[in-house]
Write a structure and sequence with these properties.
Length: about 300
């Protein structure tokens, strides 16, 4: 599967793509991946790898665990693709990297902004802070299918909720206080939404209700030294490249309480010449979203040992 003249972007999935058993075949087949799991266990001080491989699923879905777990499996995939024990998959160096929400943290490591141990530790703290913010101000998220952004913005304005993720045409996620979401969902249906799907999350992510998490993350980021990115990271909130360490820090804070502009991020990359997207990590969520954003691009999904071997 050689991509000869393509302009490639590597994209990384976010929370919700986790599943018990993920990463085990990477650990068993690739030395580079095994080292990633061992480094995660050491950095976090508990066997995250065992939780990825064996579950239980309820524990893995907890925000504080799901976030470092998805980052770890995604980075283990990336290392297996890039290093010699699996070949390079025929992929040229990326023109951009990007991640959906949490996936932006995997992009940090991929772009050399932080080493992996610091990245997975930061992802764990992000999960903890977001979960705690959700306990202070209980909330949730609902995917709205089949309603455009303008109509949904009116629904949110009328119900005290927020647009949290603009994923692709026809799929937008709203967030808000737990007591406001049922009315918002019903109003969205009345305005023409085909479906409303509550998401399994522990808070109103990407809204002002995450303000306590923003404060905690700001204190944490102030203690870390970021390197300049080796490849531009397309930011979730701006849908534009974050090409300096300071811009990246600003983006990591902004994405906690602001809308994830995934559709516009993909559109920016395609307008900049990207014709191939390689989704690296568990699941195929981003592949599906990008297909609905632009049917003219090539899509490659790398989530397990079989896919890596086929790409080599």
């Amino acid at each position: 599967m050689v991509v000869e003249t393509a302009r490639v972007a590597y994209v990384f999935p976010g929370q919700g793509s986790q599943w018990a058993g993920m990463g085990r075949d990477l650990y068993d087949n690739f030395d580079s991946s095994r080292k990633v799991f061992e480094e995660a266990d050491e950095a976090l001080g508990f066997p995250l790898s065992r939780l990825c491989f064996d579950g239980p699923g309820d524990e893995l879905r907890q925000t504080i665990n799901a976030q470092p777990a998805v980052v770890t499996v995604s980075y283990a995939c990336l290392k297996a693709v890039l290093l010699s024990d699996a070949g390079n998959g025929g992929f040229p160096p990326p023109a951009f990297v990007a991640g959906h929400s949490l996936g932006e943290y995997t992009a940090l490591a991929a772009a050399g902004v932080l080493d992996f141990a610091a990245t997975v530790s930061l992802a764990r703290e992000r999960g903890r802070l977001m979960h705690e913010a959700g306990q202070i101000k209980p909330g949730g998220m609902v995917a709205i299918i089949g309603l455009d952004e303008e109509a949904l913005a009116e629904v949110c304005a009328e119900t005290g909720t927020w647009i949290a993720n603009i994923n692709c045409p026809g799929q937008i996620v709203i967030s808000g206080a737990r007591e406001d979401l049922p009315r918002a969902s019903e109003l969205a249906k009345a305005r023409g939404a085909r479906r409303t799907i509550p998401l399994e999350v522990s808070g109103a992510f990407h809204t002002p209700l995450m303000e306590p998490a923003v404060k905690g993350m700001a204190e944490l980021l102030a203690t870390l030294s970021f390197h300049e990115p080796l490849v531009p990271i397309v930011g979730n909130t701006t849908a534009r490249p974050q090409s300096t360490a300071e811009l990246i820090k600003e983006e990591l804070l902004a994405q906690l309480d602001s809308c994830v502009q995934w559709q516009r991020s993909v559109a920016y990359m395609t307008a900049s010449g990207v014709d191939t997207f390689v989704e690296i990590g568990p699941g195929k969520v981003l592949t599906g979203l990008i297909r609905r954003i632009d049917r003219g691009v090539r899509l490659i999904n790398i989530e397990d040992a079989e896919a890596i071997k086929e790409s080599g």
